[in-house]
């Protein structure tokens, strides 16, 4: 199949390839191995067949249990589905879901929030969210067959999925500039020439995040800073929070770079 960053999926949202990105050790991420996207619940049979032909083998769903029940992913032949809910956070029991999203939309653009006050910081530091991303890495390590792909997604494919891509690309040795470019590509795909349409839910807070907010580097850099502040560097974070040994990281590079 043609190598392309944005996949020609007509019925889904924000379907993209992580293949082709260079790593700092002179390698390149393999094509048709790691995919990211928004929701899958409205995929037509034609688009489902495209993904199956593309090599789709695992789908890691980062949405909340409520979102998954409300709009489940389609069942596709020989595709294993792994629920890995990033929300709700466990380290902030006194904070309601609505209050959490208010922070997301009303962050002070000048004064950076303190640790564990920003949603992106919480996504990388909260124990429940870390468990979700660990499931994603475990799935990546299981995907040993050639020409088989892992797809991870949330609703719009930009925030939870954006953090997941940041962690995966970091583990594979992609530089921060390239990671940020991939992150910002959501703005072009979702808000460049078409109006975003996301799956309907009864949760206004989730809908607001999925529909009304572009991604911005301020948020991603807060997450990166939180990792450095709490763990020292990304390798320590991967070792401790993601429970990936150095051998696991080497295996990820073997499986997904060339």
TrEMBL record:
Question: Organism's domain of life?
Answer: Bacteria
Q: Tyrosine specific protein phosphatases domain spans which residues? A: 131-175
The GO terms describing molecular function are: phosphoprotein phosphatase activity
Which Pfam families does this UniProt record tie to the protein?
Y_phosphatase3
Q: Which family does it belong to?
A: Belongs to the protein-tyrosine phosphatase family.
Q: Identify this protein by name.
A: Protein-tyrosine phosphatase
Source organism of the structure: Pediococcus ethanolidurans
Where is the organism placed in the taxonomic lineage, from the top? Answer: Bacteria, Bacillati, Bacillota, Bacilli, Lactobacillales
């Amino acid at each position: 199949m043609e190598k392309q960053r944005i996949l020609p999926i007509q019925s889904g949202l924000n379907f993209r390839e992580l293949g082709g990105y260079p790593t700092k050790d002179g390698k390149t991420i393999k094509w048709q191995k790691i995919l990211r996207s928004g929701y899958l619940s409205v995929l037509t049979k034609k688009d489902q067949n495209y993904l199956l032909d593309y090599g789709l083998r695992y789908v890691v769903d980062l949405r909340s249990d409520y979102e998954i029940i409300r709009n489940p992913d389609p069942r596709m032949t020989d595709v294993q589905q792994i629920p890995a809910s990033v929300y709700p956070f466990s380290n902030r029991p006194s904070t309601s879901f609505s209050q959490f999203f208010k922070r997301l939309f009303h962050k002070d653009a000048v004064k950076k929030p303190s640790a564990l006050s920003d949603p992106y910081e919480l996504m990388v530091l909260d124990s429940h969210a870390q468990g979700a991303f660990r499931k994603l890495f475990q799935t990546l390590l299981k995907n040993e067959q050639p020409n088989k792909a892992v797809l991870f997604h949330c609703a719009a494919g930009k925030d939870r999925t954006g953090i997941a891509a940041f962690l995966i690309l970091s583990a594979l040795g992609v530089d921060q500039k390239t990671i940020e470019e991939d992150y910002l590509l959501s703005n072009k795909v979702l808000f460049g020439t078409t109006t975003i349409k996301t799956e309907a839910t009864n949760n206004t807070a989730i809908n607001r995040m999925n529909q009304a907010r572009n991604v911005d580097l301020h948020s991603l850099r807060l997450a990166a800073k939180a990792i450095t502040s709490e763990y020292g560097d990304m390798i320590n974070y991967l070792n401790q929070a993601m429970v990936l040994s150095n051998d696991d990281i080497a295996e990820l590079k073997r499986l997904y770079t060339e």
